[in-house]
Fold these 4 entries.
Entry 1:
Amino acid sequence: MFKATADVDPATTLFNLPGYRVLSVTRDAGGTRQVLIEAGVVEAACPGCGVLTSRVHQRTVQRVRDVPFDGPVEVLWSKRRWRCAERLCPRTTFTEHTEQVPPRARLTTRLKERLVAALSGEVRAVDRVGAEYGVTWPTVMRQLTAAHAARAAAEQFRPRPVASLGIDEHRFRTVRWFRDEAGAWKRIEPWMTTFTDLATGQVLGVVDGRDSAAVKTWLRTRPRWWRHRVRTVAIDPSAAFRSAVRSWLPKARVAVDHFHLVKLANDALTKVRRRVSWDRHERRGRGTDLAWAHRLLLLRGYDTLSNRARERLNAVLAQDDPAQEISAAWGVKEQLRRVLAASSIADASAERATFNQYVSWAAMPETTRLKKTIDTWWAAIKVFIQTRATNARTEAANVTIKNIKRAGRGYRSHTNYQCRIMLYNAARSAA
Ligand SMILES: [Zn+2]
């Protein structure tokens, strides 16, 4: 059997907004329910002198946005202005505020928490969540920004040490221009740089751009002790990243990410294939050209191919590569993969000698340029071979980031976008 409680009425219990009492619930002509509430207190402490008072100076009604409850609910707060009981206090009156509706707030704290929670753990569109809770896109973004700032402040205060750091660039969008308020055209930087803890895959930060300044700006905000504990940094073969790491992470060894090196080798192979196609047909590759039809097969690692795929690859190279240029570039690419797969520096050096031999036999500008990159980054390649530090997990984070971008249908503001990424990531790490 249910027992009616004397102190709390049913509407207040149902409404369940901490610190508030429901005074009345009415329905307007449009069907919207209006809930009139007041703070469940009988006295308040003056912020000027701290003396408690129970004298109400006046009441005003403030509209407050709250969580919808089976349809829209309009919340009206009958807000008191208290009169200070201390005669000598300069603060003669003061308005009340609560944990659920702090000063200047237009939304209840529980609504803010819902908005942030709805967008932190999941890849959802901001406007969809806004529609669900009856608030506008900028309102949702403001909550996310505030939550992100609070989290960043806490993180800044005491960041966790990271021994292996990943720095990876990703394309945020295509280059766009937009007009600012003064009417001037501004270029939107299409690249972002992500910082990851390689041990956990956690995204530590996202910054605009992919130059040395972007990376330095982020590293500079880390405490000195944190920077001194970073032992290994996995980066793309980018001189800008390397320079930033050298100046701000003095104890770290730079490991170049092997995926990016293999990608450079694949790019060289693709350039050769295109050049050969132009030389032979004086046009771009098309479906009837074997090398074009099997262009992805060329890029795959030979050790990952089935016997049938290997036969097909041999047939392609035999029929569509008369001067054996594609074959030469393919051999260079495969040899680079063997260099990177080596388990010791001695093995890697031996494989590198073979690689250099292949490049000199190939004698093509595309593969010669690749060799130059390998020479430039050899020290960082050796660190990779010793540590196997890779940005594979950063890449995974970038996939999530792209999904956030897609769900957001393109964020104009980087701050908004960064904030989504960091909150999503924080929610994932907490789970
Ligand atoms: Zn006072």
Entry 2:
Amino acid sequence: MHKIITDRLKRNIRKAGVAAFVLAGSLCLCLPAAAAEPGLQAPATEEISGKSAEKKKADDNKRLMTIEDYVVEGGGVFGSDFYELEEPEEDEYDKVPGDEGKAGESMGAATDDWNLILVNKQHPVPEDYEYNLTYINDSQQIDKRIAGQVAKLVSAAEKSGIELMICSAYRSYDRQTTLFNNKMDKLLKSGMSYFDAYRTASYSVTIPGTSEHQLGLALDIITPGYTALDSGFADTEAGKWLKKNAPDYGFILRYPEGKEYITGIIFEPWHFRYVGVENAKYITENALVLEEYVELLE
Ligand SMILES: [Zn+2]
């Protein structure tokens, strides 16, 4: 492997890092309150040089598989630079999908609004849920209705000198199932009973069907300087910026500190859920979680 890396190769390395990071991140753990995983550290980016595109792609795939195993093991997340998101045109800027002016019980928000769908252990993703996905980069998808809002959020942060990295967006049922089964296999092989393995696996990998990431409306967001998925992210500039500003773009900090008894998920300062701007502001200003807000609307 060459030691001298050209700019182009550096870009490739970064790209590979992002792809790896992105897929690793797509496993981001939405941890139930009972068992926090230890902080996830970012391993060093590997050098790649002199490979054809195809070979590189094959290597990337191989690499991603390794990372998948690694992350399922509670290992880590790869960090690198961010990718370009397409910002909406100027005249599209004021249009907010989902909630134009609606918030709270008296303002027209309703529990059957697409952006207020509740998914948790008690409310799995409906079998007939209609997906409206779009790619935001080579490997990550989100609900296309919120793509513009994601871009606005990232761009607004950038203007404040904050670099955001989306480490997890849409995650398919199959992928979630694979992750869960991998975890189960390892626990069963370690001699656990089926019941114990299921319970233990559910602490670190959300049970298939109950992850908000399966809607394409949730994002796990971190920053290059802090790639650990732990509560320490809340104290970073990015964590603080997101907490304060995400509602302006329709996102709520979905699993806040102190509401674990309602959400069933530990404090996740990196997990944001799109609910629409007015709803997000209402929920945040009134220190609610989505479960409480939906109940309020019922
Ligand atoms: Zn998440």
Entry 3:
Amino acid sequence: MKFDFLNKDSTFELPIGQHVLFRAQDQTGAWVSRVYSPLTKLHQKSHFEIIVKRYEKGAFSTYLTDMKPGDYVSCRTCFGRVTLL
Ligand SMILES: Cc1cc2nc3c(=O)[nH]c(=O)nc-3n(C[C@H](O)[C@H](O)[C@H](O)COP(=O)(O)OP(=O)(O)OC[C@H]3O[C@@H](n4cnc5c(N)ncnc54)[C@H](O)[C@@H]3O)c2cc1C
């Protein structure tokens, strides 16, 4: 899945070994968050990509893989203890 940054001039600055944390509200309004490992090279402009395995009863993988082009999701970067030097 490909996610555009809100600011098209932003660049992807997450080293290999670090993860992004996505979060969204479920139907009850509760916040659900999960981490994913981007495949994107350093300094890539305007977007990043992840591969998501869909679990049919999975709370977040179904949410992500049901998203349509133009939908928004909140995410934060830099989670992980390992950085490839
Ligand atoms: C560092 C890190 C990096 C990751 N990177 C990726 C990545 O790049 N791509 C990726 O696809 N995933 C990645 N993951 C996994 C991801 O974070 C999620 O755990 C995954 O998407 C499943 O989340 P979910 O909310 O869909 O499933 P969940 O709702 O958490 O459920 C997971 C599984 O348990 C089952 N389950 C849920 N509730 C129950 C229950 N009550 N009883 C029985 N079974 C149940 C679901 O059917 C499903 O099969 C990563 C995880 C970590 C820790």
Entry 4:
Amino acid sequence: MRVLLVSANRERIPDPIFPLGLAYVAAAARRAGHSIAVTDLCFGRRPLYDLRRRVNEFKPDVIGLSIRNVDNAAYPLTVDYLDRHREVVDSVRAVTRAPVVLGGSAFSILPVPYMQALDGDWGIAGEGEQAFVQLLAALARGTDPAGLPGVVSRNESDASASTMVPVQRPADWATGLRPARDLFDYPRYVRRGGMGNVQTKRGCVFKCSYCTYPLLEGNRFRAREAGDVVDEVEALMKDYGRHAVFFVDSILNFPQDHVENLCQEILRRRLRLRWSCYATPVKLGREQASLMARAGCDGLELGSDAVEDGQLGRLGKSFDAETVARANAHCLKAGLRVCHTLIFGAPGETEASVRASCEALRAMRPTAVVAMAGVRLYPGTPLTLRLAAEGRILPGEVGLQPFFYVEPAVRDFLPGYLQRQALAAGNWVLPGLSPPLLPTSQRLLRALGISGPLWRLLRFSAMRAASRTKFRRPNTSWGIPNLRRKVL
Ligand code: B12
Ligand code: SF4
């Protein structure tokens, strides 16, 4: 079949992100013998026009649309992408009657609401490599794909059943398959986004209360062999030149042997790779930090969420504040740059817990801190299920419309307090309270050849001084009106 795959993501902050998931789906569909073309809407000046032209030229039998982000998960400066996704589907419908298949992480979090909002013909919830190929085979045969695992049909009516779609999570998801980067402008992402991306495993065994990752990827790890990952990285460097890479795993450094094997293999082949990743403080000891640094890790995003034991417990984290501080110290000592990602205002938060987390962070002197004020609720997470069971949210209320929880006890206190922390520290990013980066600055920094995550620059006093200017006049209220948000 002639299949046109469309990457709908036009977000370029904090960076334009190469559509790795769609590249995997493209590779699987190509391997199955289909004729594949792609349209990437990220960079074009007239993306919808380009899309319509591509459809007219290629005359696809099926269109696959990748929907990565629901919204930017930041409050109150929320960016909701639904209208952009609607525009894409409308543009396609204007020029073809080919069925539209929806997929991607945003779609997988809310499959039924997206089917209804975008009027897709079919959808794939979860991983697409096998499910999409099976769907194409059914369409080619003229049989009904409904009932295939992961397939969502337009007849699904119960919007609240959004997380009930059984999905495919093959253990051998990567065997013999490389993302079809050749179909996309990968070098442009490396240039404009400062890095490429590679996935070494899927899944997460932890159970943090608000997190969608175990829903998306499952709660067991399905890892690739270190040799296979490094083969891919080596080929990337050969095909596209030496460049920085982000390992997109939910957390790279757990289980320990996985990251250690990966680092050993990078060192054994003397790759001189610069890479960064998400990490957990759990078991992040001196040896692991030093091994990662020697293997080329130059930036680690620690999903600490809080640095106060009570709040860590309420968030369902599997570590305490002392573990965070210890991991931070080991990383800094090993020469790794560390960015803590935090969530303030989740259920149970108090002024005291906010102050304690901030005090602990000050003492730890990390490279950067990215903090969200308010937690985005998604269907099916332990936190949403609990709030629904307690009658604090209504069934179906948490969906496509950005919906944030801000603990009433800290609602008035949080915005001013966090902005004062950011002003004092200079290395804080508050995406919901002040735009993290202007598109022009981001472009300029990349044009200057700066690669890897940009938060690493906050180690420089000049960058900290520039960052402080954003918080000179801290808002003591949430300030920014946004009619599309909802707060408890
Ligand atoms: C790594 C990561 C990042 C890194 C990316 C680094 C890099 N250079 O790649 C960074 C930190 C930069 C980042 C930034 C953001 N991220 Co992010 N990120 C992730 C993460 C952990 C992995 C994404 C990934 O690469 N997965 C691997 C690929 C292979 O999987 P995939 O894309 O899901 O694709 C599979 C399926 O979805 C499906 N599929 C995909 N497309 C299609 C198409 C069709 C037709 C079909 C049938 C199937 C299909 O098949 C694929 C293969 O199995 C996910 C969470 C997660 N565990 O998925 C969040 C996630 C994607 N991010 C999210 C968000 C919100 C963001 C930001 C908006 C946050 C912010 N405010 O800055 C930005 C947006 C950046 C941008 N320009 O778009 C959300 C998106 C959903 C949502 N909640 O809106 C996620 C799901 C996390 C969450 N909170 O739930 N992110
Ligand atoms: S927050 Fe991190 S460690 Fe916790 S469940 Fe999500 S991906 Fe796993």
